[in-house]
Design a protein that fits this description.
About 30% of the residues lie in helices and about 15% in strands. By secondary structure, the chain is an alpha+beta fold. It has two domains: about 80 residues, Ubiquitin-like (UB roll), CATH 3.10.20.30; about 60 residues, DNA polymerase, domain 1 (Orthogonal Bundle), CATH 1.10.150. It has a five-stranded mixed sheet, sandwiched between helices. A hairpin with a 2-residue loop joins β3 and β4. α2 crosses α5. It is elongated and about 55 Å long. The termini are far apart. It comes from Actibacterium pelagium. InterPro entries: 2Fe-2S-bd, 2Fe-2S-bd_dom_sf, 2Fe-2S_ferredoxin-like_sf, 2Fe-2S_ferredoxin-type, Beta-grasp_dom_sf, Diverse_Oxidoreductases. Keywords: 2Fe-2S, Iron, Iron-sulfur, Metal-binding, Oxidoreductase. GO terms for molecular function: 2 iron, 2 sulfur cluster binding; metal ion binding; oxidoreductase activity. This is Carbon monoxide dehydrogenase.
């Protein structure tokens, strides 16, 4: 067992973990932050995307011990300080960018990384960026629409699917 300390969603946290504990496990089971989902355990689906020191990371591929001293942001950290939905989360809700919701945390976190790098991405750029995130329900159209809306772009001309 080893101790790990990091900042998660702006709060200092620590815990005792086995060396093999994945970051996603520490977040979900150790801290009760269940917004980060475990989908495939093989880094294929992207449901577990979080930000570590500002970079999008699939939390099922990283040991919690490797996040020692890091700044970690999860889906819960994307909300506004008053607890209301953040801009990207609200856009997903408004533009129906979710159905079952299982992939949504990873999609929102990936979208935040994309918009940080490219504040006004095209539809093609969004689709390319989301290549590592799988959704079995939506067909991606409304996810792309939600991300474009979150970036402040007009989505009224996007055809409905």
């Amino acid at each position: 067992m080893t101790n790990v300390s990091m900042t998660v969603n702006g709060k200092a946290v620590s815990g005792e973990i086995e060396g093999r504990t994945l970051l996603v496990t520490f977040l979900r089971e150790g801290l009760g932050l269940t917004g980060t989902h475990v989908g495939c355990d093989t880094s294929q689906c992207g449901a577990c995307v979080v930000h570590v020191n500002g970079e999008a990371v699939k939390a099922c591929t990283m040991f919690a011990a490797d996040a020692e001293g890091a700044e970690v942001t999860t889906l819960e950290g994307m909300a506004n300080p008053d607890g209301s939905l953040g801009t990207i989360q609200a856009a997903f809700q408004e533009h129906h960018g979710l159905q079952c919701g299982f992939c949504t945390p990873g999609m929102v976190m990936s979208a935040a990384s994309l918009l940080k790098e490219n504040p006004k991405p095209s539809e093609a750029e969004i689709r390319d960026y989301l290549e590592g995130n799988l959704c079995r329900c939506t067909g991606y159209h409304n996810i792309v629409k939600a991300i474009m809306a979150a970036s402040g772009q007009d989505v009224s001309s996007m055809a409905a699917e």
